[in-house]
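Fold this: PorV/PorQ family protein
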Amino acid sequence: MQANAQVQAPKYSNEFLNIGVGGRALGMGNVQSAVVNDATAGFWNPAGLLQLPKKHNVALMHSELFAGIVKNDFATYAAPLDSSSAFAVSVIRTGVDDIADTRNLVNEYGYINYDNIRLFSVSDYALLLSYARKSNLIKGLRLGGSAKVIYRNVGQFANAYGFGLDIGAQLERQGWQFGLMAKDITTTFNAWVHNPDEFREVAAITGDTLLVKSSVEITLPRLIMGLARRIQFTDKVGALVAMDLDFTFDGQRNVLVGSDVLSIDPHLGMEVNYNHLVFVRAGLNNVQQVRNFDYTQSWKFQPNFGVGIASNGLNLDLALTRIADTTPTNNFSSNARLSSVIVSLGYSFD
């Protein structure tokens, strides 16, 4: 059994920070970099904090993924500091609870003893401290940044601490909205500490020699570019059409455009409102190519839908996202799908 340190830069590192937060955003396919203007901006693009509607702004979200196995929770408070700056504090938790540890299920006499089962959780936490300020050089340019502290825990087996930095910008010109978000711009490092003693008995049986006491997981930068346009049909009916492009540099991914150096993942979103009171949303993301049973290739995507109500500073947003499609790819398949319902609540007041 080794006791050294390893450094690795895997794809999908800290992926819990890419699931997304807020019913509005998730209903629009995670398209937010150019349009976010509420308390969730600390996550999506801190530059959007300069558009907060009131002095005090809070938002809460709860969602359950994969038939309730994974819990994803978010809470934030945001407020303007003055006419040209704002800040936010946000907390995210994504976790799987009540996992059964059955290593001691069979006792020393060879009998099954269910009292020996212990439960543990695998949880990822992030604290985001965000700040935004108007640019003094370019009119209409908003700038922001988020410092994030990460804690990840795998029961008594391992835990990690990490730190990263995101920066963002927004700009409006002639009815067009532009957004730019650079995540993990400094490269985020997660320092893992493992507990090999928890695996000592298993390793003695399996002959495992790969366990380490510590390792460093690196999250490479990600760039998000956004474009949006507002359309006013009548005095009371309007729409917002937006698109985000995610650029990743950690190797080829299964996205619309993928290569060993650069992968590009597009997101499309739309929001229709009536008098800014009732909102209907839709979005497309996660465009992927899958292999069928007959070895042919086909493209699939994730559709998302949402509705929202806003009144007197209170915002209630619901979203339905298709997290997984369990449909087999042959002619004898059923149409079973796993979907996730997201509920978020926001309140703004002076």
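The mean pLDDT is 88. The helical segments are 23-27, 41-44, 200-206.
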